[in-house]
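Researcher: I need the complex structure. Ligand is calcium ion. Inputs:
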Amino acid sequence: MAQPRAIKLHDADNVAIVANAGGLPAGSIFADGIELRDRVPMGHKFALADIPAGAPIRRYGAVIGHARADIPRGAWVAEKLVIMPEAPDLAALTKGTPPAALPPLEGYSFEGFRNPDGSVGTRNVLAVSTSVQCVAGTLDFALQRVRTELLPRYPNVSGVVGLTHTYGCGVAIDAPDAVIPIRTLHNLARNPNFGGQAMVVGLGCEKLIPERLLPDGAPAADVMRLQDEAFLGFGPMVEAIVEMCRQRLEVLDRRRRETCPISDLVVGLQCGGSDAFSGVTANPALGFAADLLVRAGGTVMFSEVTEVRDAIHLLTARAADEQVAADLVREMAWYDAYLARGGADRSANTTPGNKSGGLVNIVEKALGSIVKSGTGPIVEVLAPGARPTKRGMIFAATPASDFICGTLQLASGIGLQVFTTGRGTPYGLAAAPVIKVATNSALAKRWHDLIDFDAGPIATGEQTIEEAGWDLFRLILDTASGRSIPWSDRWGIANALALFNPAPVT
Ligand code: CA
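Model: Output:
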């Protein structure tokens, strides 16, 4: 049998996780002499010392909970034995002294598509906005024709995407929180991968008027409504959409990649289907790569409010100034109230998959999640779907739902996304490449044609976090430059956009 392996993350920790694939049986003895009293599944924790009932359980050097009963050394620290701690009190948070700016990293660039507004895309994609779900079927029909009849004639354009969604009709358009879905749709059309070629297909009677989705000053020719009396039936509507697309494909096809500084690159980070290795392998490697991007002048955004809420005191401590700290607290408080209004609390975040992967609660998940934000100062906080005004590490407030987070980060202007997963998900975005990083080699091997990067060798000691981080940094630049195509793009698989609408539906 293979030598039992455990991973302890911090000197102060009184638990470690089992690293062996398939877990370990009772009686397994580690190199340091600890003997397991129970069978412990892979990724799950065991006690490194006797933990009396009520005593803190420490991982990442932080308290992830308290023991519900005496837990002897070598015992499995199962979910039922861990009492979840209270979330950090937002009113009691202090900003502290932010970490020093990371040292500059020179000599890196990428090949991107520069847009008239100065932004730079990593892909050359035609996007069609919609103001209401009613038009989605008709748009899909028209875009099928665009794909088969037009796209082959424009080889520099890599795809066409309909920005369809369920918003627009039957919504409380002026409710305070309606600003979020409307801002999201407005900013989605400005994503740098779309080349500034906005157009909107609307119906004609929806509450959300199409013009609200266009950049300020855009010409009226960028909007069409299916109820326009000039359209005698379905055929002419489709013709009109195809013709609008053709005009924009002409422009997009003239775009060429050019060498751009990393300061033009905006990368989004996300995780989904997390396990106990997320915070041990993939997220630390991604955090190292994120620091490299920031050092090279780039912009990186991390998100998922419910996955950082329980570690917020560690983020406010990294706020570059008082405003950033206050904005972090503002977004957490808004979300606390949003969850309370819905009768939910933060414990609703951890999924059954997270738990069978070894994460006992949201506190442990949060500690493993925030490591992907690296170690430097946090320079800005974005409300959901807002666009950044600064470069560096940014917190973009979003729900943790993969599709909603992806949609909001696209609205916030990411050119590509890096997505870490332990349990596995075939997640993809039509508008931007997604690099999927496996937390363990078992997943990377099983999903050899879906996972782009294997962080598993960190758990087996074959690679350091730094080595994996550098490899991932280079893969990010290759992907941004079109030299590397992620699996989801090769298969053409993508999840639907999903708007975050906390406002009432009527
Ligand atoms: Ca997620």
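Model: Summary of the prediction. The mean pLDDT is 93.
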